[in-house]
Amino acid sequence: MRFWVFWALGACALWAQGAEDFFNAIEAQLKSNTAKGILMLIFIGIAFYVWRNLDRWREIFFTILGVVLGIMLFFKAPALASWFMGLF
Fold it and tell me: What is the pTM (predicted TM-score) of this model?
């Protein structure tokens, strides 16, 4: 129950402050050199985890693939929408 209350308060705060500015700030942060270094360390950690759990590599691969595709679609949604509308 507490989770949903905090989630609703967070969503309301984002809506009140302008979610577009928030997501633009996150995207700018992800493009920085510091974020690239952190993401490289995360990738190395995931690779080590997969290496230690080779019997579950397919499950881990599809989970990571789904998360990455979801993030890409989330951040590029306006560009994808304009491209899709340009087809018609």
Answer: 0.45
Q: Report the candidate in 39, 40, 66 with the shortest Cα–Cα distance to residue 58.
A: 66
φ and ψ at 32, to 5 degrees? -75, 160
Residue 60 and residue 49 in contact, taking contact as beta carbons nearer than 8 Å: yes
Question: For the range 19-28, what are the long-range contacts, defined as Cβ-Cβ under 8 Å and sequence gap of 24 or more?
Answer: 23/75, 27/75
H-type helices in 18-76, by residue range? 19-30, 33-52, 57-75
Q: What is the pLDDT along the chain (88 residues), one digit of tens a residue?
A: 666 666 666 666 555 556 667 677 777 777 778 878 887 888 888 888 888 888 888 888 888 888 888 877 777 777 777 777 787 7
| Ramachandran bin of 18, using left for φ above 0, alpha for ψ from -120 to 50, beta for the remaining angles | left
